[in-house]
Each structure stands twice: as C-alpha cells, then as structure tokens.
Fold this protein.
Amino acid sequence: MAIAMTVHPVFSLKGTNIANAVDKSVQTSVNAEIPSVYSLIVPESVTMTGENGTGEKTATIPVTVKGDIGLTQKITVTTTPPIMQRAGASDVTATITAPKTQLDRTDALANNGDGITSNYTVKATLTPGDWSGTAEFSCSIAAS
C-alpha cells in the first residue's frame, strides 16, 4: 500500500520559529517592559509658626513617595527652598532640611502601598507681617 503525500515548501521570516513533523514543538521568547510608576505627594500649603515678633519661623512639610518601581531603582527627591516675600521687606531665602531624599522599592511600597512619608522642615527668620513663598519638589528615578 502506498501513501500519497503532498509536500509544500515552508518559508520562514527572520526571527520566526517553525515546528515541522519531526520537531513537533517550537519555542518563542516572551518579553515584557513594565514601566515604573510612582507619586510624589506634598500638601497644597503649610503655615510657618514660631514666637511672636521677629525670629525663626518653621513649618513641617510631609513629603510622601509611593509607587511600584524596579528592584534596583531609586527615587531621588530634590527641593528648592522658598524665597519668602513680604511687601516692603527684603526677600528671605528659607532653608529646608530633608531627612530622606533617596527612596527604594521597599520605601515606595511601604505601609501596604501607601509609601513612606518624610517630614521636611522649612525655616526662615522673619519679621512681623504676611510672608509667602513657594517650596518646590521634584523627583527623578534611576538605577542604583
């Protein structure tokens, strides 16, 4: 008994894997590129306080970083201190003390995904009156 077989040529594009009747299996590479996601959260405003009259005034700014970043990545938070201004007075550049400026994956995922909060302190020596300024925060992410 003879078996008739039709043979068809098989063409393969570069990067294509093909299984034939002999191999019966084929493999493919599966890749995924998952971007990091994170948030930097600061209050809309804080109020500086201190003794009445001229002197050092302070405020605490809670800075929260949360998210999901790579195992070897670090988030770096930078700040620009506020320039405090009041009509009729010279500008005063405040200082900011930052207790934690680099955060890793464990920090970002801490507290059941709510992240970690660091209390930054703003200080300035001010005279009586209404002063205002803006502290700026920015962050970047890089492999450590």
